[in-house]
Request: fold
Amino acid sequence: MALTWGWHELVWIGQRCRQRWRWWWHRRRITQLQEHVQRALQAGAIEEAVGMLELQQGLYDWPFQVEALLFKRSRRPDSLPLTLALLERLQAAPGLRPHQRFYAGIALAYAALQADDTRRLQELRPWLEAVASLEAKDEPRWRERGVRNRESLFKQRVSARSCLLQCALASSPPDQTCIAAIGDASLRTLKQLERCDLEPDVLYRSSSNLVRGVLALPFTPLRMPEAELQLEKLLAWVAHPSFRPFRQRAKEDHVQVIRDGLEVLRLGLDQGFASVETLRLHLLVNSEAPAVRQGAELWLQQSVER
Reply:
């Protein structure tokens, strides 16, 4: 076993060395392509920019510029309509990696919420529901050791549910059926999950969205103790000293988010959920779009009244 693992490590190191050598050998051409993309985006030439991004990926296995556009909003065009067009084109780009096209779709949904673009949101909804996989039969036993954060199908599913939750809250009126289904699916995922199923980085960076999903549950005396138990389990995992390097690298304090989620459940059971409405709202909303916050406030008010 030790020899097999050592061989795989050597193969991986060899691949990384060849990749880095390739980047160094073609560094001038890669720089030219990146500059070409910047000029095309400034000119509003989306097709041209995406074509150059696909060339970077296909010819040189260079993912960095496209991933900066996907994960850093400051790198996108200042114009929201141009950003929407770019993300829509990236989602459909066959020359990009599957996880890049997936996160282009997620970024597109958040940008459409910000723009109050109902047409795009309606077009994205079937895709979001499909990748969120809310049905019980779609909950697998996750075994993703060795899978990097952005390529994790587990993290993609959890991210899709969080994004779908924002869209469901922004609906007029809020889509209570979808919101409850997200809560059920999130709790089901936690109940089936084992710490050894995922890479620590994947589990840690998924934690806030897992909490967000659980807090979408209808707050009933029957469900809340179960939800509290699962968040306690998640907290014990990610607060363990072995997770310290991943906590230090992450921008968000996911441990605190889990603690806040537990506070909502515990105080809600003891003092009534109206007493924790502000904190629950803060944890649920993951979009700057006014419609999301307004819908969440309405949904919480209706939940308390029931």
About this structure: The chain has a mean pLDDT of 90. DSSP finds 15 helices and no strands in the chain. The radius of gyration is 21 Å. Residues 205 and 250 are 7 Å apart (CA to CA).
